[in-house]
Structures are given as C-alpha cells and as structure tokens.
Amino acid sequence: MDITKHIGSIPFFEELPNEQIEDLSMIITDQVFDRGQIIFSEGDDGNGFYVVVSGRVKIFKLSPEGKEQILHIFGPGDPFGEVAVFAGQHFPANAEAMESSRIFFFPRESFSDLIKNNPSLALNMLAILSKRLRRFANLIDDLSLKEVPGRLAAHLLYLSGQAEGTEQLELNITKTQLASLLGTIPETLSRILGKMSKQGLIESDGRRIKILDREALEELAESGGRL
Amino acid sequence: MDITKHIGSIPFFEELPNEQIEDLSMIITDQVFDRGQIIFSEGDDGNGFYVVVSGRVKIFKLSPEGKEQILHIFGPGDPFGEVAVFAGQHFPANAEAMESSRIFFFPRESFSDLIKNNPSLALNMLAILSKRLRRFANLIDDLSLKEVPGRLAAHLLYLSGQAEGTEQLELNITKTQLASLLGTIPETLSRILGKMSKQGLIESDGRRIKILDREALEELAESGGRL
DNA sequence: CGTGGCCTTGATAAAGTTCAAGAGCCGTGG
DNA sequence: CCACGGCTCTTGAACTTTATCAAGGCCACG
Lengths: 227, 227
Prior knowledge:
Two copies of one chain form a homodimer. Chain A is of the alpha+beta class. Chain A has helices at 3-8, 18-27, 83-86, 108-117, 119-145, 148-162, 175-181, 186-198, 214-223; strands at residues 29-33, 38-40, 48-54, 57-62, 68-74, 79-80, 94-97, 101-107, 168-170, 202-205, 208-211. In chain A, strands 1-8-3-6 form a four-stranded antiparallel beta sheet. In chain A, strands 2-7-4-5 form a four-stranded antiparallel beta sheet. A three-stranded antiparallel beta sheet of chain A has the order 9-11-10. In chain A, a hairpin with a 2-residue loop joins strand 10 (202-205) and strand 11. In chain A, helix 6 packs across helix 9 and helix 7 (175-181) crosses helix 8 (186-198). Chains A and B meet through helix 3, helix 4 and helix 5 of A and helix 3, helix 4 and helix 5 of B. Chain A binds a DNA duplex (30 and 30 nucleotides) through residues 147-148, 174-176, 184-191, 194, 206, 226.
C-alpha cells in the first residue's frame, strides 16, 4: 500500500516524522465513494474525520423542502468533518462525493492522541479551523448584507484571485451549484449573469467566464450592489 | 493584582497548572473599555487575542452603508479574536464593548508558545473554534434557507433552551441588535413580533417575551416558515 | 433518438427593505 | 423639576429584490 505516501503529501501532515506517519497509516480507513454517494449526514455520530485524497466533496445543509446550501467544496488534501471530533459528537452538515473520490478516515481517539504529542499538528489544525471561521464570517456577511449581484461579483473576484492574473475563469462546478454556494437559485443566477454580460462587466459562455471590467465588479462587491 | 485569580476562572485556562497561570499573568495586558468603545476593527493587525473578564462584547461586520451584522455577543470567560492568531494576521471583523467591560489581551507569541507545551490547551481551543464553526454553519443555513419568522422562532427557542424550563424570556439586548443578529432590520422584526403575538404564539412586552405556543414555534423554525 | 439534467426566460407573487412619521423612555442640564 | 435631545420601537405605504411556477432549448449519455 502507498498509504504512507499519500499521508505525507497531505499539507496538514507534512511536518510529521515518518514514524508517526506509519502509525497513522495503521489506523486509517481508506474508502472510495462514487459520485453522488453520501459520506455522512447531518446529525450522524462523528467518531472521526476525513481527508480528501482525490476527487471532490461537497459539504451542505438541507432545508426541509430539500433546498440545499453548500458550505464548502473540498478537494485533495482538504480535511473535513473535524468539527465533530473536537466539539460534540454529531456532524453539523451533510457530505457528499461530487465525483468518484478517494477518502481517508481517521478515527477520533487515535487522532486526538496524536495531537497530544504533536503540538505542531494542533497548530495546523487551529490554522485550518481559523481560516474556515474567517470564510464563514465573510459568507454570513455577504448573505445578510449584500444582494446576489454583490455576492456573485465577490465570488468571481475570489476565483480570479486564485488563478492569478488571468481574467479568464473556468467554473469547475455547475451553475446550479454555484447558485447554492451563493445562497440563491439557478434562475436568479442566470438572470444576473445575463445582466452583467449586457452591461459589459463579464463575458459568459457556459462555464467559461471572462472578466471584462474588474473595477466595476469590485465596486459591486464592495457596495453590496445593485445592477 | 488578582489577575491570576481571574485567569484561573476562565474555563478555557482552568486545567492549567498554577505555574503557567503565573507565567501568563506576566504577559497579559489588562484593559477596560467603555460602552461603545471599539476594541479592534476589521482589517487591523491581530497580534494577539482577547478574553472578556466582565461586561459584554459584540463582534460584527459592517456593510459600506453602515448596516451591521452581529456575528457574536461574548460575555465573561469568552475568548475572541483568536482567528487572527492562528490564521493570517488581520481581524476578520469588528469588536466593540457593549457596556463597560474589562478585557485581557494575550500577545500572540507567548500564547502560541504556551500552546506548544500544553496539548490540552490546544484541544480546548480546538473545541471552542469547532463550536463556533458549528454555530456559523447554522447561521448560514438559517440566513439562506429560512425566512425571518423561522430565524426568530429558532432564536427564541434557543434562548428558552438556555434558561431552561421557563417560557418567560428576557432579552438582554435591544431589539435593534436582535434584528442584526437575525440578519434583518428593526422594522421587520417589529412586524413579525406583532404577527406572532396576534396569532398567540408569544406575548411580547418590551424586552420580555413569553412563549405561549412552543409547538407552533418549533414548527416554524423547522419549516423555514411563513406566518 | 429519447430521456434526464442543466440552463435560460417570462410572468407572477411574496417577502423584506426603504422612507417617513410619530410615540415612549431616559438621562442631562438648565 | 421639567424640558430637551437622543435613542428605541412601532406602523404605514411604496418599492425592490428574489423566489416560485411554468415552459422551452440544449447537450450528453445510454
């Protein structure tokens, strides 16, 4: 098995001495999930956490009527479900494989033992949780203070920040999912993309979006914006 | 000074050996903030974190037009601003004293040293951050999936859960602040409280609110609810 | 080639915000 | 002691944003 290789390449475990990586490899469960398969559901007992090895996983909440709000989309190297390990017992949201994905599972006990002996691991984990808190704070801010065009503008700028330089973006999710990520519905998203195109802010062709007027987008994102 | 006594009584530091509490007391800055005074602003450099000793502190985001979304309200024993210590450098939101408050400040360096030697401290911190993530996830869920009546119902039930048993609640914040906490504005909150009263779900008199029909409220909170 | 998912567009309706005005409350200072 | 200013809360009316419902087009995959 090449499990140890995989573990070593998870950013989060990088600094771990080989010895401990081998220990880890003994307690890991290695699983593959098909596209659409549920990894865990809100309220399930969480007796460990997961790391994406390959593929993508979406973390989301469901309203009683079945509408979903996506909280995160995680890819290779990203841990998820850790909240259940440190606070309380059950998962606060649902996790589903967006495509065929390989996932490592780390049982709670062994992991918290590990942390007790590895302060740097704890600090890593603290950094990860802190970053998520920060992102959530922004999302809450956006949801309550900005309207959809503002949220979309902010998101596009965020994406272009990732892929630095280029004004040319490629969505790696469907527009329906993007809508859910922005806290709205596909119809509304579609209309707003339309308006933005008509006003020359962007060019939108399927999953390809080109930023034409970055300043105007920034203005929109800042101001909470109307179109 | 009785700083050590105060530190010992912060839940979070409880398990710390006396020695280290004394070490801590050497590096703490002890400050008093008046009502309305800003403790830090979004974007400020965060070279440490805070703990409320007495009083109350509100953590919030501001829209460019000045509308605020309250993220947390913290009281005695609650730490805040830790995100800046573990992830990145600047504070992701604003902090303001809601009343005259005594606050301890812990410089980043010394605190992260401390954590390196105290795994249980790290675990405590992880638990705190995890709980906040969980609360945020719920808030996001509410904001995007529920309408205001549903959020209000959920919040009232949450409050009554705290003060266990009684159906009689006393808000300890203004209705304007409650509106901000729910992601809406005072006018809307006022109207919805009015409707709930008319329909016999609650009785509302100033800051005193009495739950008359708990089941109906639960139904509202569950279903995302209309009135 | 048909079926299902995804995307778009239109008409309609609901929820919430904005703006404006007024009432109640409280602490300060004349 | 009373009046003033400031703040909170409430209510009404107009308006805006967004969701809902319905229908049609497109594309990929079996």
